[in-house]
Write a structure and sequence with these properties.
210 residues; alpha/beta; Beta Polymerase, domain 2; 2 domains; 5-stranded mixed sheet; two-stranded parallel ribbon; 9 strands; 18% helix; 25% strand
């Protein structure tokens, strides 16, 4: 199998953003060949080769990457892509100043590294904002455990198959995900300690709209 055509790759990325092409014979080039059916197109990573992977095929893509020699998940992060005027924002919130194009979405990024070859590879999935969900990376990279919990906590991405998907930074009863563009920071939430169980208890001020 061959890598995605260069013409399709160029058409798929926004103007002004370039992604380095995989070097001939590199692990990234081999990934493009072995995972062709799982790839939607190129990403927009500035320094390293990046591919946008079909959300349903992420576990398979991660397995291929690890088999080829990408043995370290250096980072797993996500961000809310919300073009101006698309979704209602809380009072006082500023419209985004950077427009990435396309529909509102959550993008999850996996930065991989090969210790043996000293090569980088970045994978990205694009998820709908309403109920973003993708398979967990924990089976292939156990270090993804807490990284996925943080993304769930702050952006609301559910990772199917995660062994213990619960909030990492905020109490379990917290309403909303603070790194969403439409999260209303003006609505106060209060955290107290249950004297019987010692667990955090989240409460809201009456009439604040939660």
């Amino acid at each position: 199998m061959s890598a995605p055509p260069a013409a399709a790759a160029a058409a798929a990325k926004p103007s002004g953003l370039t992604t380095p092409a995989p070097a001939p014979g590199s692990l990234a080039e081999r990934f493009a060949q072995d995972a062709t059916e799982h790839i939607e197109g190129p990403g927009t990573q500035k320094n390293h080769p990046q591919f946008v992977v079909k959300p349903s095929a992420l576990p398979q893509a991660l397995h291929i990457a690890r088999r080829l020699g990408f043995d370290h998940l250096a980072d797993l992060t996500a961000y809310d892509i919300c073009p101006p005027g698309i979704i209602p924002l809380p009072p006082g919130a500023k419209e985004p100043t950077v427009v990435f194009g396309g529909a509102p979405r959550i993008e999850v990024v996996y930065n991989l590294f090969s210790y043996a070859r000293k090569e980088h590879l970045s994978l990205k999935v694009k998820l709908g904002r309403d109920a973003p969900e993708v398979g967990s990376a924990v089976p292939e990279f156990p270090g993804a455990d807490w990284l996925e919990r943080e993304v769930w906590d702050l952006l609301g991405v559910r990772f199917a198959g995660h062994p213990n998907l619960k909030r990492l930074l905020l109490p379990d009863g917290w309403a909303g995900h603070p790194l969403r563009k439409d999260y209303d920071r003006a609505k106060e939430q209060f955290v107290s300690l249950d004297e019987q169980t010692g667990e955090d208890v989240v409460s809201f001020e009456e009439g604040r709209g939660w």
